[in-house]
UniProtKB/TrEMBL annotation:
Organism for this UniProt entry: Streptomyces tendae
Protein's name in the database: DUF3311 domain-containing protein
Listed Pfam families: DUF3311
Key words of the record: Membrane, Transmembrane, Transmembrane helix
Transmembrane spans: 12-38, 50-69
Entry-linked InterPro entries: DUF3311
Length: 88
């Protein structure tokens, strides 16, 4: 009886994965730290800071999530790519 070698997939912390985590955590930190934006000044085209800051984070969060997704895709492709070229 031959047994297939056990492959354990341990979580690996890489710089790319740290960047992915930061991209995903940054919007939460920015929105939960209410004291940083609970004010009316500066006003942007008549909109108090409290409102336009939150709306800006909607766009920023979208961009950061997209960056995290693209980095994750690249990381997964790199992990599943054959090592050392084609073997015969």
């Amino acid at each position: 009886m031959s047994q297939a070698p056990e492959t354990t997939r341990e979580p690996v912390v890489t710089p790319v994965r740290v960047v992915i985590g930061l991209c995903l955590v940054a919007p939460f930190v920015a929105m939960l730290w209410v004291g940083s934006y609970a004010k009316t000044d500066p006003v942007l085209i008549g909109i108090p800071f409290f409102y336009w800051y939150q709306m800006a984070w909607v766009l920023i969060s979208t961009a950061l999530t997209m960056i995290a997704y693209k980095l994750w895709q690249r990381d997964q492709r790199a992990r599943t790519a054959p090592k050392g070229g084609a073997e015969q």
